[in-house]
Design goal:
Layout: H1 13-39, H2 45-53, H3 72-84, H4 91-106, H5 109-121, E1 126-129, E2 145-149, E3 152-163, E4 170-178, E5 185-193, E6 199-203, E7 214-224, E8 229-230, H6 237-272, H7 284-312, H8 316-345, H9 358-368, H10 373-384
Parallel strand pairs: 1-4, 2-4
Antiparallel strand pairs: 2-3, 3-7, 4-5, 5-8, 6-7
Length: about 400
Amino acid sequence: MRTALSNPVIESEEHRALRAAVAALAKRYGREYFTAVVAAGQHTDELWRDAAKAGYLGVNLPEEYGGGGAGITELALVLEELGAAGCPLLMLVVSPAICGTVIARFGTEEQKCTWLPGLADGSRKMAFGITEPDAGSNSHRITTTARRDGTDWILNGRKIFVSGVDIAEATLIVGRTEDARTGTLKPCLFIVPREAPGFGRSPVPMELAAPEKQFELTLDDVRLPAEALVGDEDAGLLQLFAGLNPERIMTAAFALGMGRYALARAVDYARTRQVWKEPIGAHQALAHPLAQCHVELELAALMMRKAALLYDAGDDMAAGEAANMAKYAAAEAAVHTVDQAVHTLGGNGLTQEYGLASLITAARVARIAPVSREMILNFISHQSLGLPKSY
């Protein structure tokens, strides 16, 4: 299926070569591998290792620490192509994109040397904990706190919907420290080892069919050394959004890949399924909705590319707006496309054989996480349009 991004004016020769290479790897695994792993309650370890060997997992991380020296543009491309083959790697969003980016930009030399090589070659993973039961992702209402005790930090709080804690050596936790001068609580980031005393986890039962499990975390007087703090405790939201903007871009890539996979299955079915004289795809009642889905996915892909390029260029402010727009557009396109794909196949769209029904739930995740579409519209209305807040 030809896309606008295959045009060299829109996407470089290097990027198209990367797409082709990732697509070839993903094709060797595909949706059947992914669903078999989920059914067995296992993880996509084989695909993760092969992607690591090819240098895809750390393509965005600095070369001096074992990465590819590229950016979020390239990492998003990797995730999109994996998703388009039906086997996305959710931990790409978390480990190299969020945690790797934050450590690369704000970590100490010791933190970079300790974590980045492993994140780049896939031998280590790091989870990310920001969402709380009562605060959601509202960083202004986060109640997980960090207080000083000599040179150490003591963390207390709870987190919810944290992906992959069981397979990650540590979790990058968003807490809040108190400004001694004003008493104001400021967001800060801490690397918490999985086996740290007082750091508990319990799985959250989900209807979502995915290899990565979701967890609720408890931090009960978790003592951390001074070097567990990433960056400057006075930097506040700057460091946090250095990780959240890539998260939104990568979520857009995740949704785009899912949408492309669903559309390809639907188009193939509509081209070959024959009930009357012509294949069902000849009828405009099916052809036009699929064409509309293609348009929506292409538009979202262009916005995602814009967001990634802005972020990689260091324009955090413009990237924040574009990343939110890309995530919104890609999520809406994915939900619409998956729904139309299932509808195109009729009863077959709900069978395990075609592998589309499970995407109905998965597609909605992109609308909800890491931030809801309504909160994105709030951001756009306030930041882009200058409208007043209601909260």
